[in-house]
Amino acid sequence: MRATLATVALVATSMVAVSFLVPLALLLRTQVHAEATAAAQQRAAVAVAALAQSSQPADLAPVVARLDSSDRLCLHLPDGQVVGTTHASAQMLGQAVQDRESVSRDVPGGWEYLQPVFLNPDRVAVVEEFVPQAELVRGVTRAWVVMSLLALGLVIGSVLVADRLGARAVRASRRLSQASAALGAGHLDVRVEPAGPADLYEAGLAFNSMADHVKQLLATERELVADLSHRLRTPLTALHLAVEQIGPVQGAERAATAIHHLEAELDSIILAARTPLSTRPVDPSGAIGRRDGGARSGQSSARSCQVAELARHRVGFWSVLAEQQGRACTFEATDEPTPVRLPEDDLAAVVDALVGNVFRHTPQGTGFAVSVQRTAQSVVLVVEDGGSGIEDPAGALSRGVSTGGSTGLGLDIARSAADLTRGDVRIRRSPLGGARVEVLLSLDSEPRRVLVRPWGHRRRRAGEARRITQGA
Fold first, then answer.
1. C-alpha–C-alpha distance, residues 54 and 46, integer Å
2. Helices (DSSP H) in 340-423: which residue ranges?
3. Superfamily of domain 299-469
4. Alpha-carbon gap, residue 346 to 285, rounded angstroms
């Protein structure tokens, strides 16, 4: 931007300087030429007065010597005698005598002026005045050099002034741009010091006001989420007491376990909502501790997990319900490491959302398959079923859009997790006949040691699944 402003100043000032300098230089040259010829004509007028008094060479010689010491003045007498040094051609002298009027023209080496003098009707003398070329342009070159230097100084000065003014505007706009990028990356406390021209100063004030408003809106939203989640505690507590009063009847244990899990989820939501934004980590996509579609906020995206191990565990959990509903459930996974830069809870939410969609939107008895594959740069999590498929894949990937009567956030959970790892989500037709959802997750370039849940833990989770689904 500074270079552009300097270039504009250079072009504009140069055009102005040239538009004034060229006419001024020509006018100066014309003025010097006019002054030199006027001086020559004055000397010729004095010689004319001397001829009017006497036409004798002896009387005219001192006059010529007094008027001119550079052999520029010459008197041509009627009898052909010449007093002084002549520079005129015979043709010019004949024209002046014949026409009996003054003659002036540029000649090689200077400028010639001839003035006829009538001594009597038959006798005509001619006064010749010659001005050399050096006299016609005396001082012009020096004046042109001085004007050129002044114009050059004017151009350089205007460029420097424009650069200084541009630097002030550029610094202000660069600070505003950096603050905007930081705000977009999730640093909500960033502000700018308004500076620069009036427009940029107002833009800085508007940016600060916008950042304050955004921070206030997010704080209000967090409080609203926390309050709404906390309000659910009362009916949950009442429900928990009612279940305890029921006693050891069929289904009571399953209901108590479900209530316990729901309370744990509410606790995590309240904790995430109460966590200050300034303490939340910034993920590569620019969000702060974000996990769209129901993932727990505040989890660090820098943690990594093994996709194959986690998917195997979650499929084991869902396989209990699949067995009760008569669904064929298969799982395949690569033996290679499959680390991705996602927390385990986030990836578990992806698997649960995709498998849960199968249970919600396909009739009982519909089989499904889950597989984990690895490519050179990514891990592909595939969930496919034998249902009727998804009629509008593009619409299904839009947040909050659903054609199956749900909230439309299930696939958005997978898409958000894929975005955090710079991956992608694809929906295709499955060989089983239904939908095939592929979640591409970029491999973690620096895999960390991840503690894998022991088999006993999986068995306990499977037991919990049986209790939850018992009697379904």
1. 13
2. 344-361, 393-396, 410-420
3. Histidine kinase-like ATPase, C-terminal domain (3.30.565.10)
4. 15
Instruction: Encode pLDDT of 24-59 as tens digits.
Output: 888 888 888 888 888 888 878 888 888 777 777 777
Amino acid at 150: L
Name the residue among 247, 253, 262 with its Cα closest to residue 469.
Answer: 253
Distance, CA of 247 to CA of 39 (rounded, Å): 133
- Look up the pTM and report it: 0.41
Listed residue (99, 98, 101, 46) closest to 72, CA to CA: 46
Cα torsion through 319, 322, 324, 328, rounded to 10: -110
> Widest CA span of the chain, in angstroms?
159
| Alpha carbon 122 to its chain's center | 91
The DSSP code for 288 is: B
Smallest CA-to-CA distance from 47 within 74, 87, 86 is with 74
- Start-end ranges of CATH 3.30.450.20 in the chain? 2-138
Long-range contacts, stretch 102-110, CB < 8 angstroms, 24+ apart: 104/37, 109/133, 110/135, 110/136
Give the mean pLDDT of 141-157: 88
CATH class of 2-138: alpha beta
Pinpoint the residues of the chain covered by CATH 3.30.565.10. 299-469
Query: Dihedrals φ, ψ of 355, to 5°?
Result: -70, -40
Q: If we measure between CA atoms, which residue out of 418, 437, 203, 164 comes closest to residue 301?
A: 418
